[in-house]
């Protein structure tokens, strides 16, 4: 299976910074995600609009085919470029990936999509997508239906769920789904990182 990191967003809530390249521990946010994913996936793709920004990372760069159309266009380009049937897709602003949870997800059967359902919300940017979804996603993007969950609803997509109790077996604090959009989120994430590093040392 391949891993696909979406990094073509505008980071407009981050007031001038491109969030995947913000410092995070001894690397950057995306650096931490790439390193983690590389330990379980042989193929890691970064989908972006700017090839040069990410060329120092140990990942293949894929460019968006549809401009400024949100994460769904990144999912589209990533699935099109990937060489595997099933693909783990993740946002570039979720730096607390839990590898045991991801391994667990990879071991479940997937028809079109496998997505966690946590605190009443779906987490479509930490989910497994089959290449089978590609024509349905392309149709949605061409019709300018950019909401990820929207295309599942009207296009006969087989969605399976990972429930919160399953997630909590691996990640009781649900840090996996902490995503960073603002400076405040970033400060909070650095605090979590310090706490995690300290717990690891103790
Ligand atoms: N490849 C690709 N990824 C995208 C695109 N739009 C958003 N993403 C990614 O999707 C994920 C979630 O994006 P958001 O946080 O909703 O949007 P953002 O543009 O990054 O940030 P804001 O401008 O603050 O909303 C992030 O990993 C983004 O990099 C896009 O057009 N192409």
Automatic annotation (TrEMBL):
Record Pfam families: NTP_transf_3
This protein's record includes keyword Ribosomal protein: no
Record: residues binding Mg(2+): 93
Catalysed reactions, semicolon-separated: Mo-molybdopterin + GTP + H(+) = Mo-molybdopterin guanine dinucleotide + diphosphate
Gene Ontology terms: cellular component: cytoplasm
Top-level division of the source organism's lineage: Bacteria
UniProt keyword annotations, A-Z: Cytoplasm, GTP-binding, Magnesium, Metal-binding, Molybdenum cofactor biosynthesis, Nucleotide-binding, Transferase
Name this protein carries in UniProt: Probable molybdenum cofactor guanylyltransferase
Biological source species: Acetohalobium arabaticum (strain ATCC 49924 / DSM 5501 / Z-7288)
């Amino acid at each position: 299976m391949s891993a696909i990191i979406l990094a073509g967003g505008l980071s407009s809530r981050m007031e001038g910074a491109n969030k995947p390249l913000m410092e995070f521990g001894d690397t950057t946010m995306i650096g931490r995600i790439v390193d983690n994913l590389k330990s379980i996936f042989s193929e890691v793709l970064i989908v972006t609009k700017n090839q040069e920004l990410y060329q120092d990372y140990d990942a293949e760069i894929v460019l968006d085919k549809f401009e400024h159309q949100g994460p769904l266009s990144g999912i589209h380009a990533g699935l099109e470029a990937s060489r595997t049937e099933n693909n783990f897709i993740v946002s570039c602003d979720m730096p607390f990936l839990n590898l045991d949870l991801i391994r667990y997800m990879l071991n479940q059967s997937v028809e079109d999509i496998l997505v966690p359902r946590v605190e009443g919300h779906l987490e479509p940017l930490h989910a497994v997508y089959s290449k089978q979804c590609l024509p349905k996603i392309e149709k949605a993007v061409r019709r300018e239906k950019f909401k990820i969950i929207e295309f599942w609803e009207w296009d006969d997509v087989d969605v399976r769920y990972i429930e919160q109790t399953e997630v909590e077996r691996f990640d009781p604090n649900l840090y996996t789904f902490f995503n960073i959009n603002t400076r405040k989120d970033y400060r909070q994430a650095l605090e979590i990182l310090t706490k995690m590093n300290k717990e690891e040392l103790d």
